[in-house]
Amino acid sequence: MKLAFSTLGVPGVPVPDVVRLAAAHGYHGVELRAHPEEPVHPGLGAGERAEVAAAFEAGGVEILGLAGYARVAAPGDDAAVVREIRELLRLAGDLGASFVRVFPGADPHRPQQEGDAVAARRLAAVAGYGADLGVRVLLETHDSHRTGADVLRVLGPVGHRQVGALWDVMHTWLGGEQPSDTFAALSPYLGYVQVKDIASADDTTPLPLGAGVLPLAECVEVLARHGWDGWLCWEYEKRWYETAAPLPDLLGPGREHLGRLLTESA
Question: pTM for this one?
Fold first, then answer.
């Protein structure tokens, strides 16, 4: 498995510095938070996109994917959501990234089946465009669709290999789903896995990997047992928790912890 971290943990840090952090601490790739307050977002021009891609290539670090904020199951106009995802896919294609992350975001006050159908319809609408660019759209286990079983209800009807799943280990744990069950649901669709750690279900302030309660060892063991060799991406949510320790100081120990888990699971 290859290791990455998300720029959610280093909000606003310039691209060259992100590349240096990854290279210095032994990470193979980076997930870029695609948001207007960050250095990388769909509003970048062609020249700026080329500069970002060149910086990563020169540093020997891969751009794993773009973490977008489109909510595919949310009520409203399909066209606006499809357009947002297409813009993210175009940016990912220009940068050489393999994946684009989207959220579910269904209205909890509406029937579950309605949200599932809306999400499947929108994802199917962008699948071909993603295929043309060589970029997969990944629906994250998050908010209204917290577990693998929830996400599977959407991905099954889509039925396109260019649309898959992103397993966020915190949300499946909060949803009460066992890692083996999550993998069983998502394995045909799995793009990559977001790892993290927290103190408890009531305190989701990010912690160093291994310092909290999330079943990281079990997740890695399940992946290794089934021969999965994709990406583990550390999503340290510093952007939402200003009091959390700075991520750069934790990247080295975090890399070592993941390395130990991988060795123990081999």
Answer: 0.98
